[in-house]
Automatic annotation (TrEMBL):
This is 2-phospho-L-lactate transferase. It comes from Candidatus Sulfotelmatobacter kueseliae. The lineage of its organism: Bacteria, Pseudomonadati, Acidobacteriota, Terriglobia, Terriglobales. Coiled coil: none annotated. One of its GO terms (molecular function) is LPPG:FO 2-phospho-L-lactate transferase activity. Keywords: Magnesium, Transferase.
Amino acid sequence: MICVLSGGTGGAKFVDGLRLVMPADELTIIVNTGDDLMWWGLYVSPDIDSITYVLSGMLSRERGWGVKGDTFLCLQAMGQLGEPTWFHAGDRDLAVHLLRSRLMAEGKTLSEATATICQKLSVKARILPMTNSRVETRVDTPAGELSFEEYFVQRWYQDPVKSVRFAGASDAEAAPGVIDAITSADAVLIAPSNPVTSIGPILAVPGIRDALLRARGKIAAVSPIVGSTAVAGPAGILMTAQGLPCSIAGVAQAYEDFLDVLISDSRDARAADDLRQKGLRVECTQTIMRSPEDKASLAREVLASVSGLRDEPAGTAFRRLDQS
């Protein structure tokens, strides 16, 4: 069994690669819910939706989000009624939000609603929200504190970022199955998602970071940074705001207490050598996923990296560094 910690777009590409090279029913994906929002009275979970859509074959590969071939008639009609339209929910996408919202209004948890939707869409992998509690990623900017979707989608991440916090995280509990999935997995993989606002909220839920420290399988992270630039989105901006360098060193620092191996792009070979000299295991490969072949190749490389570490003594790379 393989456990994956993931956000949306980059995570969906990585999960797509994994399902091409291993049975989907051997995958458990723990997904960020810090981006969740109420939209037109509906509960929307963007990252869970992206992972669900990619595993059901519904994801729009052109956009990287939403449902392929979707229409936006409701969006147009809501705009004509004077309602906000900056969050581009498609018509088929809205059907999922409607079902989720009804299930939760009937008393189902987000975990239970997600399981129902996955069953109806024939998703064989197990998708777990990080928590059933409400945790919201908040981005502090000169314009005020924004939800992540306001910052990222509505305002196109143009605002300078002062800091990021995860409202409600300290009082949250990991969703059922999350801790066991991490501690019992043969390997834990951290997708090339934003370390601050995709993986950060997951790690902020009490008990999850401790579970990673106790995991019996090795832990590998794929860097979403190449050189000094994020592959996509505001990861670099947000890392800098949180005091992390925008580099593979910054990615390693974000996960340093539990990481066994960092997977970086081949173009970061020199930076990888620097990290190896400090005691971290780093493997370089092609991490840009433009095609199904790219996704499958990266998935194989990451699985091979953790497989090759199975016989090593317990303890993370950074613990070995501390002892050297």
